[in-house]
Amino acid sequence: MQTTTSPASVRSSESLTNPQRLLSLDAFRGLTVAGMILVNNAGDWQYVYAPLKHAAWNGWTPTDLIFPFFLFIVGVSITFALAGGQEHTNVIGKILKRSFTLFMLGLFLAFFPKFDITTVRIPGVLQRIALVYLACSLIYLRTTTRQQTWLLAALLVGYWLVMTVVPVPGVGYANLEPTTNLAAWLDRTVLTTDHLYRSTKVWDPEGLLSTIPAIGTGLAGVLVGTWLRRRDVADADKIAWLFTVGCLTTLGGLIWDAWFPINKALWTSSYVLLAAGLAMLGLALCYWLIDAQPALRPTARRIAQPFVAFGVNAITVFFLSGLIPRILNMIHIQQPDGSEIGAREWLYQLFFVPYFTNLHNASLAGALTFVLIWLVILWIMYRKHIIIKV
């Protein structure tokens, strides 16, 4: 990880951007990461409002959109970060290094604090981000926009056919049930049950086969990023087309749901279209408000700055927000009855539970407080122009 500090004389929020960087993209990324932290850090997991939980299987909630939004943003960011990258001989090495770093950070979170190699979960959120970034970066550097479009279509249609036509070994027929689908079989066969998501045991929501359509989510972002970078198209036309394509893509996902159900755990092709379409609409709105409207720009940018603070240090805050609760849980505090609880639980019981009659509200307040604490930290880093690059 690398820390960079901008010159102290540069004070405006624009100092963290350059001609090839969109403030609206940073804001959209920050909003997404703040959502990740919120849904991953409930005060009490027994009391969580339905929109802040994942769908049990088929279907979706707002929480199910957060991770694909981030992968979509990874794709968009690639087109800005690697613009002209074909001319640099060391760009492939940098891509490989960053992918490896992201993957190892994810493994570290899985290892910590037990560091038990026999039961460590190998897949994970950061690991999937690493693989999607690696694949989409190389595809972007080596293919044309037309080829990327056809590849995206091939990935989604191919995954649909594989999941709905290929018989599952040991089962005898193709199916989309939680424990007997082809993706679950592949996870158990290659990774074994000791290295999968501990809440499911026999399949992983960031498993091997479902990484293929997740790459499709990143490619959708690459195509949008290429469109936004065009200098021969007016901002108004970019936004109009982005809204139009976003609506059509969302509709396509909802229609495909009838044959290939929207499902985050399987990362179904219909889910890719739904999430990518909604991400296009979200990014188009941010772009219109923050980057394309001179009259609204000053106010919109002031309002967006807290989210930009999250966005410019997105991986850093995601990693640390997963690590710190684990560290707090290692600190045991004795209760009056002689029992012991972790420091995280103790803080929640001390500062939130006594002040809420509705425990769902207490749990939500705990999660929101965690987000606000990180906002203060990230805001200080943002004002000091400190960006930790992975």
From TrEMBL:
Pfam families: HGSNAT_cat. The keyword Transmembrane applies. The chain crosses the membrane at residues 65-83, 95-113, 125-143, 150-168, 207-228, 240-259, 271-290, 302-324, 362-382. Residues 21-231 form the Heparan-alpha-glucosaminide N-acetyltransferase catalytic domain. InterPro entries: HGSNAT_cat. Keywords: Membrane, Transmembrane, Transmembrane helix. It comes from the Bacteria. This is Heparan-alpha-glucosaminide N-acetyltransferase catalytic domain-containing protein.
